[in-house]
């Protein structure tokens, strides 16, 4: 969804480097120096230091994440509750979510600082785990919001899980599979795509269900209506795993229920490319070609 009003100039920015990609440190230093020269207030942190990023996210208009899509996901989840925007410099492999590269960040970021950008809002997901009442374990709090996906999968043992799945209180099916991906449109080009799911443009607010290695059960992806709620009951004789964006993990036991719905928060991306950028970027990334931003 593109912002319909002229965005304001940006006066405060958080620059987030990647602790395991050494070269992001120098690029982050260069970005910080440029922003200071443009009269912008700058904060620094590591994308992996979530408490530090949370502490500054409410004080900035924009978070600039350096790294790959994982770094962008981390920044977006923290920024969303504060209404802050995210723009990333791709220093990873694919960079589906990135707006900048190491060789063009100066031109792009200067345009953003001056207010020459548009805001793309993307739906996020939130999940709650309700423990099997017979097990006597307490329910878990809501997971941090996920921008890509919530995934139920088998744990360390190579055994299937059964996931009895309801959509809007109506039974859809029971999947027998290695796992089940509940993805946003953003996540449709991530794990869900690798598992055979459809590609959705990022402005859609639909949820996609994609089974992983299904066995004698529904083997097609299902695109749900906007606003749908997915309830999944896990049946397994071993531990299963719940992950959010592949970065938050909860152990699931037999009879646990996972409920997934659209989050109240939106991820907001600052963009300077034309609104049609998604398809051009998609084809370039799938072909592993350089993509002009």
List the main descriptive attributes of the protein structure presented here.
about 290 residues, alpha+beta, Rossmann fold, Tumour Suppressor Smad4, 2 domains, nine-stranded mixed sheet, six-stranded antiparallel sheet, 15 strands
Topology:
Layout: E1 12-17, H1 23-37, E2 41-46, H2 50-57, E3 62-67, H3 69-79, E4 85-90, H4 105-113, E5 118-130, E6 149-154, E7 161-167, E8 170-177, E9 179-183, H5 191-194, E10 208-212, E11 222-223, E12 230-235, E13 240-244, E14 248-252, E15 257-271, H6 277-286
Radius of gyration: 20 Å
- CATH superfamily of the largest domain, called what? Probable inorganic polyphosphate/atp-NAD kinase, domain 2
Shape: elongated
How many helices? The count is: 6
Commentary on this structure:
By secondary structure, the protein is of the alpha+beta class. It has two domains: 12-117 and 272-286, Rossmann fold; 124-264, Tumour Suppressor Smad4 (Sandwich). Helices cover 19% and strands 34% of the residues. The chain is built from six helices and 15 strands. The chain has helices spanning 23-37, 50-57, 69-79, 105-113, 191-194, 277-286, and strands spanning 12-17, 41-46, 62-67, 85-90, 118-130, 149-154, 161-167, 170-177, 179-183, 208-212, 222-223, 230-235, 240-244, 248-252, 257-271. The strands form two sheets. Strands 1, 2, 3, 4, 5, 7, 8, 12 and 15 form a nine-stranded mixed sheet that branches. A six-stranded antiparallel sheet has the order 11-10-9-6-13-14, with no helix packed on it. Strand 3 (62-67), helix 3 and strand 4 form a beta-alpha-beta unit. Helix 2 (50-57) packs across helix 3. The protein is elongated.
């Amino acid at each position: 969804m593109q912002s319909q009003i002229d965005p304001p100039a940006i006066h405060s920015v958080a620059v987030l480097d990647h602790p395991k990609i050494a070269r992001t440190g120098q690029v982050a230093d260069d970005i910080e120096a440029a922003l200071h020269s443009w009269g912008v207030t700058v904060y620094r942190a590591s994308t992996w230091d979530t408490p530090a990023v949370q502490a500054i996210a409410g004080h900035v208009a924009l978070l600039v994440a350096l790294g790959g899509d994982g770094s962008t996901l981390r920044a977006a989840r923290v920024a969303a509750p504060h209404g802050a925007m995210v723009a990333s410099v791709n220093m990873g492999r694919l960079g589906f979510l990135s707006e900048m590269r190491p060789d063009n960040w100066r031109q792009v970021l200067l345009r953003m600082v001056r207010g020459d950008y548009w805001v793309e809002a993307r739906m996020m997901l939130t999940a709650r785990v309700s423990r099997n009442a017979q097990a006597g374990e307490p329910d878990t709090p809501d997971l941090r919001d996920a921008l890509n996906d919530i995934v139920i999968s088998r744990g360390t043992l190579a055994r299937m899980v059964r996931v009895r799945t309801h959509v809007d209180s109506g039974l859809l099916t029971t999947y027998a599979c290695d796992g089940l991906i509940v993805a946003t449109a953003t996540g449709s080009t991530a794990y869900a795509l690798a598992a055979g799911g459809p590609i959705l443009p990022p402005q859609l607010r639909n949820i996609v269900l994609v089974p992983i290695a299904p066995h004698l059960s529904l083997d097609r992806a299902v695109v749900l209506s906007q606003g749908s709620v997915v309830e999944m009951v896990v049946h397994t004789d071993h531990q299963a795993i719940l992950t959010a964006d592949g970065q938050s993990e909860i152990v699931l036991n037999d009879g646990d229920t996972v409920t997934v719905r659209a989050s109240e928060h939106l991820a907001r991306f600052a963009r300077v490319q034309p609104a049609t950028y998604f398809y051009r970027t998609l084809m370039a990334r799938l072909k592993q070609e350089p993509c002009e931003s």
